[in-house]
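dumping this here before i forget
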Amino acid sequence: MLQNLRLLADPSRIRILLLVTREELSVAELQNILNMGQSRISTHLAQLKGAGLVDDRRSGKSVLYRLRPPRGSESKAFSQLMEVLQEAASEIPEAEHDSEALHFRQYLEQSPGELVVIVDDILRTGKKLGELKRLLESRGATVVGLAVIIYQPTPDTLDFGNLPLYYLAKLDARYYANAAHCELCKRGVPLEKVWI
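structure:
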């Protein structure tokens, strides 16, 4: 435990750990975000992996790093550690922009006026797709449509206006404010959970 605390005393490792908490990233992507050399990042990742804090997996020619999920009794200590790391990151000036909502992988750059169709697996609330649309448009791209495999609208689904939406399957569901308004609940039909 003491070794792990010493390991996390380095601001760069704190930043890396918080970044791979949010998403899987390659060394090249971390270089781009952190503006740091490849060998330095690789050394930090090896130390974090050796301490059991980070996992990796191969994806094509890249190795992607992610936070190792806590196991069993580690959950409470893990939550506390993440709170401490978030607090520590707030004191690292370079980390100020690390937590931006979305960023583009280094090889995805748009040209001003480029026409883009946003493609995703599922559209429920549309929050992330809305964020992505704003990010693309802020870079000069023009979003001309959305395409998803499954469209499962909720009462809170973002309205994309007249932007064309293409989907392979639509899952209609009924939403009720509470059990008193639910027709099935009124008839005594038992609740079933369905995971998609």
